[in-house]
Amino acid sequence: MSVAFNIPTSSTASRAASLLVARGQAIDDLSGVPGLTSLWLGRNKITKLTGLDVVPGLAQLGLQSNRLTSLVPGLAPVVGLRELYVSHNGLTSLEGIGHLVR
């Protein structure tokens, strides 16, 4: 299932958004909000971390209570991430976050 979102392009909306990915198991097109800095996608049954390459300035990412088993390679393009919330997933390692440690 794919769900499209119309998000206003004002400076406020492009910096923070809370989106519901309707149980779609994937993060869809975020290219309409390249300046996004906060994204909260908890409780969406997301199984694969993709699509973050178009929001490299992301600073906060909430992915709690999904079905992720890996963060690789999804977090690689997000070099400025400061807060990552991944509790209640199926992760067995934190491989893929080494570039985020300061």
Quick recap:
This protein is mostly loops and 102 residues long.
Helix content: under 10%
Strand order of the largest sheet: 1-2-3-4
CATH topology, anyone?
Leucine-rich repeat, LRR (right-handed beta-alpha superhelix)
Rounded to the nearest angstrom, the radius of gyration is: 13 Å
Form type: globular
Largest sheet: 4 strands, parallel
Category from helices, strands and their pairing:
little secondary structure
In CATH, the homologous superfamily goes by the name: Ribonuclease Inhibitor
User: What is the level 1 CATH name?
Assistant: Alpha Beta
Low-confidence regions? 1-9
The name of the CATH architecture is Alpha-Beta Horseshoe
Query: SSE order, as H and E?
Result: HEEEE
Q: What's the assembly state of these chains?
A: single chain
- The N- to C-terminal Cα distance equals 37 Å
In total, the number of strands is 4
Overall structural domain count: 1
Nearest-integer average pLDDT? 79
Task: Kindly describe this structure.
The longest helix is centred in the first third of the chain and has 5 residues, at 11-15. This protein has a single domain, classed as Ribonuclease Inhibitor (Leucine-rich repeat, LRR (right-handed beta-alpha superhelix), Alpha-Beta Horseshoe). The protein is largely without helices or strands. It is 5% helix and 12% strand.
